[in-house]
Design goal:
two-stranded antiparallel ribbon, 11% strand, homotetramer, TIM Barrel
Amino acid sequence: MTQASTQEKPLNIINLYELADEVSKNMDKGAFGYIRGGAEDELVLENNRRSFNQKFILPRVMQNIETSDIDLSTQLFGIPLKTPIIQSPMAAQGLAHQDGELASAKGMAKAGSIFSLSTYSNKTIEEVAKVAGENPFFFQFYLNKNTEFNAFILNYAKQNGAKAIILTVDSTVAGYREDDVRNNFNYPGKFANLEAFEKYQRGKQQLTPSEVLVEAKQALVFSDIQYVKQLSGLPVIVKGIQSPVDAHHAIKAGADAIWVSNHGGRQLDSGPASFDMLPAIAKMVNKRVPIIFDSGVRRGSHVFKALASGADIVAVGRPILYGLHLGGAEGVNSVIEHLNKELRINMQLGGVKDIEQIQRTVLYTQTELETRFLQ
Amino acid sequence: MTQASTQEKPLNIINLYELADEVSKNMDKGAFGYIRGGAEDELVLENNRRSFNQKFILPRVMQNIETSDIDLSTQLFGIPLKTPIIQSPMAAQGLAHQDGELASAKGMAKAGSIFSLSTYSNKTIEEVAKVAGENPFFFQFYLNKNTEFNAFILNYAKQNGAKAIILTVDSTVAGYREDDVRNNFNYPGKFANLEAFEKYQRGKQQLTPSEVLVEAKQALVFSDIQYVKQLSGLPVIVKGIQSPVDAHHAIKAGADAIWVSNHGGRQLDSGPASFDMLPAIAKMVNKRVPIIFDSGVRRGSHVFKALASGADIVAVGRPILYGLHLGGAEGVNSVIEHLNKELRINMQLGGVKDIEQIQRTVLYTQTELETRFLQ
Amino acid sequence: MTQASTQEKPLNIINLYELADEVSKNMDKGAFGYIRGGAEDELVLENNRRSFNQKFILPRVMQNIETSDIDLSTQLFGIPLKTPIIQSPMAAQGLAHQDGELASAKGMAKAGSIFSLSTYSNKTIEEVAKVAGENPFFFQFYLNKNTEFNAFILNYAKQNGAKAIILTVDSTVAGYREDDVRNNFNYPGKFANLEAFEKYQRGKQQLTPSEVLVEAKQALVFSDIQYVKQLSGLPVIVKGIQSPVDAHHAIKAGADAIWVSNHGGRQLDSGPASFDMLPAIAKMVNKRVPIIFDSGVRRGSHVFKALASGADIVAVGRPILYGLHLGGAEGVNSVIEHLNKELRINMQLGGVKDIEQIQRTVLYTQTELETRFLQ
Amino acid sequence: MTQASTQEKPLNIINLYELADEVSKNMDKGAFGYIRGGAEDELVLENNRRSFNQKFILPRVMQNIETSDIDLSTQLFGIPLKTPIIQSPMAAQGLAHQDGELASAKGMAKAGSIFSLSTYSNKTIEEVAKVAGENPFFFQFYLNKNTEFNAFILNYAKQNGAKAIILTVDSTVAGYREDDVRNNFNYPGKFANLEAFEKYQRGKQQLTPSEVLVEAKQALVFSDIQYVKQLSGLPVIVKGIQSPVDAHHAIKAGADAIWVSNHGGRQLDSGPASFDMLPAIAKMVNKRVPIIFDSGVRRGSHVFKALASGADIVAVGRPILYGLHLGGAEGVNSVIEHLNKELRINMQLGGVKDIEQIQRTVLYTQTELETRFLQ
């Protein structure tokens, strides 16, 4: 991990696509391939981006909006947020920056939003909790066959102040990512929470971090949601939903929020764009629980469109790691600020001044433009 | 502004796309980026062009049309025009040519059509009025929070013979144009009308041009239309409409014409192509007031298609600045003449001989070609 | 015209697209630009090709077809043809080969099909008639304001054995072809038939070839069809139809055949693909008269698809000039033979053995494939 | 055939597309052109691939699937298979490897699946039978006008243990493959089964291998199916079906299975993608007989989608020859294993654990995603 960046500075961002180009020039090839890559032919990776361009925001005029009145604030589980944009959980952030999750957590705190800590982070929950301070963070969790591990880690998260558990359910096997095969990629760092578990077990029959990884549970069932809720005593967000039916079952099983995601195109490359599934899932969820959306968000307009299609909160992944690599905590904050800036312009020109008004905005497909108004 | 052109000559134009390529070779990079650029990913810029190609003019034969009988003349607000093609308002034309708006105004006069002068021009209304002479011109206006400025400038326009006010309503915040960020672009010239206001205020509490710019009104409301009508005593064209509903409200509020435009793709990059919205807006307007159309017009066929889709007048922006740069007033006239030439050929081959016949022509989408005739 | 080819040999043709590439390497740039080029953005040129790929021939098996039984023969106006593929009229074939129309006529005779002679040919009707011998040829005609010219030329055609008049109605003004403007292209040769007219007038008030050209009639009307029929006493094919309504009017006015064509994309660049209009025109014509089809035919499969979409005869233009340039009369024959070869393979694999069976074959769009069979 | 490979090793496969690139670098140009190539413009070759991307597998979660429980086994005609992926018949495998069909047969045996031997193989049925041992193989057959040949070869196959006859019906004439014309390609090896026939005839009126080839029957009829069944006494699979009607006629005529194929885009280039015809054919077949599918399968997801669209078995062609070239029998096995690996990941993420569950899975088009769930 000697290549990991030690940068710490705000970034002059033109747009988030160019940020990736910049990172690609000096990040370790294997690390960049792992972060950037998608599964197989990367059809979903491409489709996630394309899908946003298939829906139009109609420009509205004379809607009495002063730019200074535009308000991005919202809330999730009663937690006040300065922006509807939170961070998607991502493993091993030491790949991007020497301070890893500590810097990300600081950056998200500066942006007034939520940091999501991965089970497979390079820093412990405890370390992250310290730098997060008053700022809320969520803990992302992969269920394990080892119940002792489950109990330890969920308790560890709760004791250190995590506000919710993100239960990832779409990665019971890793997507077939060819860059990682080509680059013979392996995580170079240590998984700090697994080491914490190893230490905690001392004296008992011990499980090494590698053994914990191998024991990740594949045969997930909807009743696992209750199990996690009971062990953690925290709200459980079920992450990785693309099917409306699965969203329904997850809510019936106790999910406190649905996280619509196709893992940024890293899992099933034959699946649809995440944004294309959002309206149907939102219809099925029918406001029973909040919806968080991710996969492909690179523009303020994408945030707008996701909110207008049923999302309550929008999460961003890779660009935050790019910001982290280029500018540490400040870089992470710059990414969120840039998206906020684009979002505000889109709101002004789309004729809305707060998140609720975005959520009531109707988007149009090309076909709808040509037919709906002419009937 | 030393780089601005001093050329004065008619142009041999192959087509307007190549004109842009030619200009790109020797115009100052910042100036060219500002003129050419669109917002964000420039999706609308591209889509504006593409949209014209999705509608077909059916070739018609044996319609008894002598090319010499083809008549491009029309009128707007009773002003006779030699062509349905007028100029879109554009700021700071000194970027393209040392004579700026004076040369454009002369060029449009030579073409027998209307010049639209921007509030943020490099030449004053008074100067332009002098060169325009008998030829009609319109004045484009951004409403200001400073009511004294509004009163001054609208009176200044009227006194100098402007025939109508173009009230731009789609730019309460600037679109996010990345070339301008990359080039660190700033207007190099002075805003002549704002300086005229500064001079006019002498002795009172004074507003500098920069202060006027900052005070541009964002929270526009439909009743502002009446305010501008009363201050100016001139017809008010509401420019920047993409929503049929907004068109309706503007007419209810007193608009004398609707200018359908997405600002040439410079504002909301998530919006539709301007041409794709035209039929729905025309249906909503239902001939209550004239419709002016712009955004993406680069071919005589585009003019034809816009007229056949509900427009009464078609406006052109960037290509006129390119003509201005390469040939001054003569270059501006060459651009209009080239479009007229292409338009006449399209009319002959489409089987129509005047603007009214174009407006009654039915266009077809690919799907309609395959289904309408076969039912 | 010193660059014109004097080649005379059969060609080894891979496909007709590559033939164009080969010609482009050594034909005079202006001549190649004139022959290859389309109007404006060449959208129709591209669309003519694309349109064929939107319709599928369903492979059929076990249909009891011996390849040696496949029969391409057909007829037009009672004239027996060895192939359904005839030549489209094209002006000034001296551009492609020193023997110009004489070589083309010989090549088409060898192929057992019809040669179409342009009014603006480099060889006279008389010269062509001599080399054609027993083989039928048609004469293509542009109506002139000078009635003496009309009478002369139509009589000249009839006296020399032309079997039909092709009245071109889609070129009352030339399409805007940018290559010709760029290359400053002018016909280098003489128009032999116009010179014949000049000679014929000797002693009377004389019209030079250039004056005849200028006097081409633009204000065509449907009753002109009767005029041409009466002057020539020959069947009149109306060429350049893209509108079903125009096809109907032409038949009502006496047309003996309809030639569906968009002039190979050389005229109205905003129009549809010719192949896309064929089904609707065929439905309107309803077998009252034969339909000839051209524009974009480069493959045996295109011939198949045109015949299956309502055409009785399919015409080919540019590729014949390419064959003429590379191989003279033999080259022309090679082009037809190559198309015949591809057509036969398509027939065998499509499960049909003669032209009539092709005409009864149903083609499918992608959408129809996905829906028609599943209902 | 001196260039043919003698490699024997397992392959590190990234994906099957790259395998082709690797082969292209060192296989003889003519051989590679023959194996890789498609007909005419290779539209079907491209479309075969594209078609898979138009249907989506919806990711499913929490479906209680342990990866180790995923089961690829299935059966055909009661023959147990370790994978639903079998080999398509391909001629002259000596082009790819010195051991030709012997190595392929060994590789498929190792993969626990079926090898399909072509009539026009470089090794005899007898030789293949020896290396296949207990492992099942099918014999692919082109009907001949020479009934003695038919009787000989079908008996030869049966005596040597072939489990079924694959009657290819879509190649009564070879598709027009331009690479073969360009490369002046001819099969360099001998056709071992035709030589076996020559030897068998000794003493009678003899037919050389070339004469047998020339006498291949073109005028196939559906009753030929019974003829082959009676001569061979084996199940007959009719291969090369793209029309639902032809599938129906073949079953009525006694076909024991339908093999949906467009010959990998090598025959009628104007036809549809094979995958696009599968649902309609499956509907028509209505489970009366098993369906085998090929043409364009390069991903485990393609296998999944074909099975979910009505196929019972999926066949792969070219990639197996590429594996054969690069690694002999081991290379062939590596190709199947790689597809199995991708398929397993797709099953886990698509929420199914066996072939039957795949077959009950619903796929979605983009349009269905946008509409079906929202009604």
